[in-house]
DNA sequence: CTGAGATGTGTAACTAGTTACGTAACTGGT
DNA sequence: ACCAGTTACGTAACTAGTTACACATCTCAG
């Protein structure tokens, strides 16, 4: 095993797979020669798909063998030149180019079958002697990645580690600027800032906290990266509002954590339900609310011109 | 799984490995981006080998990561241009170019370590959930191939199947031409044909069979592809001579089978030992005899000018 | 000490794939 | 009937590696 793989750990799995696959493939040409099959190893996948005499289009071949159509197009061109296959336009559809083996191509079949039988037997043998069956291992790994690909898994890991660095703290006056800045930022991005916004953002203590509300600040490595407010409408009913997360911290799922934190606070304060008003235009936000458990309701008309949707959740 | 792999069986293992490895690698760039590591994924192996601050030559790097030195040379050139590493001639030896990370390169390390930790954990997790551990499976497979590579194994399989088609029959007059042709062919290739050759080859019945000897012909798909003679020197002592295999059938191990066949015949006829005379120049032949059990002896001087070695085996 | 062969590196040309793009043919809604 | 979008294909340009070759430097036997 290469020094790299000894030291790198399994993070280099992809690299190792590719390299090992290539080293196996390197022997292929000698094998073809041994059996007298007059074929370039890279033709193998195309040849194999056509070997039972069927005709296939370029695209169908590409799909079946996992290459780009461009690659298949080139391979077919070479094979045609070597007299191994031929192609013709299919009558019904002037676009598709149907490819099939020529007689000469079919003549390779007998030798090829002998070869593939032997190779199969050798590989089968090697696999059987291993504790971990390489073929099955790939199948299993691929299957797992089909459910959720590698990148998503890594992203989740990344996110959950980063989220551990996020803390939520109660509003203090020193956060007043951060609170308004974060909100002005996103409101200005999608709408015009309205008077009703300005009032609350500039005097949160007066309009939110003193009326029994609550404001949380999200801190990430001691930077304020998000904020959210609970406005008290009655002892049992709070409004979730002024949620804002800075672009620099997007993608860490801070919004979600912040939201859950707010629901928890509402619950602790005796709230039974939390509602919010938003705009269907803000798809990511709406999805976030849904994920938090909010469901659309028909509520009383809102003083905000941009409000088209109301949602609620019990806590 | 692709249709190709479903149908092809495990003969396409190499192809599948490479393809799967590539598909994993394709996600790498996004991962680097996610963690803010300013690095081209293809730099990874070089970066990794240098990450502990050590200096390495191009060739040493190439060896460690399993690339050609040319590839490493290109990667280092790119990394140098990006300011990630630098290289300088080593004082003792004007040829070697020692490469190490720059400060900027080392700055990537922290982020890289975070990333590799997460990736490692995710892959480890996936492997642990599989019945067949992909990483271990490759290690095992590689280990097996180290002992004997894939091509050798296939060749053996091929050979043993082809050998089943070889039959040995006793000399008849209809084989007289084949017997002499096969021998003249190889003798002429290495030496001048001598009178003592001519006598026996042209009248095998008289000089070999009638004196209690034996001649076998090797048939492969009804073609005579080889021959060999036993010359009786005494009731217990035979000479193996006139062994010839046609070029068209080389590589199938026919010589070996033919030799064993002759020893068997000698044994059945009451022989206790078989000797032969040959020339050290004919390395493949000598190796073949060794494989059959023959050992070098010092014997009586031979009438053949080309004979430099005598070998014997008990049967 | 000197010349033949080995070693280390860089560059050029090749290889087996890819993505990007252009063109022609088909399809489906008005 | 038509045109906007989709599909099939081929070609060109790119990519990440390779092998082949050129060249400088080193090593060591005579």
What does this structure look like?
The structure is a homodimer of 315-residue chains. By secondary structure, the first copy, chain A, is an alpha+beta fold. Chain A folds into two domains: 35-147, Winged helix-like DNA-binding domain superfamily/Winged helix DNA-binding domain (Arc Repressor Mutant, subunit A, Orthogonal Bundle); 161-314, 3-Layer(aba) Sandwich (Aminopeptidase), CATH 3.40.630.30. Chain A has helices at residues 3-8, 13-26, 28-34, 44-50, 58-65, 69-81, 103-128, 134-147, 150-163, 176-190, 195-202, 204-209, 254-268, 283-292; strands at 56-57, 85-89, 97-101, 166-170, 214-220, 223-234, 237-245, 273-278, 295-297, 309-314. In chain A, strand 6 (223-234) and strand 7 form a beta hairpin. The radius of gyration of chain A is 32 Å and the shape is elongated. The interface between A and B is large, with 75 and 75 residues. Chain A binds a DNA duplex (30 and 30 nucleotides) through residues 22, 42, 57-59, 67-71, 73-75, 77, 93-97.
